[in-house]
Design brief:
Elements: E1 4-11, E2 15-17, H1 30-41, E3 45-49, H2 50-57, H3 71-82, E4 84-88, E5 99-102, H4 106-115, E6 121-124, H5 126-134, E7 140-146, E8 154-155, E9 166-173, E10 179-185
Parallel strand pairs: 1-6, 1-7, 3-4, 3-6, 4-5
Antiparallel strand pairs: 2-8, 7-10, 9-10
Helix pairs in contact: 1-3
Domain Bacterial bifunctional deaminase-reductase C-terminal: 2-179
Protein name: Dihydrofolate reductase family protein
Pfam family, one: RibD_C
Length: 187
């Protein structure tokens, strides 16, 4: 059975985007970028909601060809392009870069993917992750908490029907001030 991991950058007050989908507060440092690149390398499959897919696919397919791309960005772009991805959306009809589109029941498909043999899966996008959270499918939460308050926007956590008990697995602070924390779901 695969492990499902939900992780993103978020503000101290719990938002992955400020109002208007503004993520300018989250300018990553080299250390934070390397952390996410290492996470990507350890992942077999990434699951995206439509909005995060549009954000990622608008840059990373050619991120390694940008004039100011760092060696870490070049490596990340290549990893991202080559890895298997699934996008869940009922409003788009085409995806590229080693990606499969699912237009049906996301929770049923995520449940099916979790039951397969294979390495860890990442899930990204607040709406998609929220559905997986409510269904009890997320095994690990990875929070990269930036020392900024934005007062509103898109929350990292969704409203839940039941409590989710967690065990802290790791916490550390990067030189840029971002605190990384990992929690496993207590089953």
């Amino acid at each position: 059975m695969r492990k499902l991991i939900y992780g993103m950058n978020l503000t101290l007050d719990g938002y992955i985007a400020a109002p208007g989908d503004d993520i300018s507060w989250s300018a990553p440092s080299d250390e934070l970028f390397q952390f996410w690149s290492d996470q990507l390398q350890a992942t077999d499959l990434t699951l995206y909601g439509r909005k995060l897919w549009h954000t990622m696919s608008s840059y990373w397919p050619t991120g390694d060809q940008q004039p100011n791309a760092t060696p870490a960005e070049i490596e990340f772009a290549r990893r991202w392009r080559d890895m298997s991805k699934v996008v869940f959306s009922s409003t788009i009809d085409k995806v590229d870069w080693n990606t499969r589109l699912v237009t049906g029941d996301a929770v049923a498909e995520i449940t099916r993917l979790k039951a397969e043999d294979g390495g860890p899966m990442d899930i990204g996008g607040a709406t998609l992750a929220g559905a997986a959270m409510r269904a009890g499918l997320i095994d690990e939460y990875v929070l990269a908490t930036a020392p900024v308050l934005v007062g509103g926007g898109t929350p990292f956590f969704t409203a839940l029907d039941n409590w989710v008990n967690l065990n802290m697995v790791e916490t550390r602070t990067l030189p840029c001030g971002v605190t990384l924390t990992r929690y496993e779901t207590r089953r």
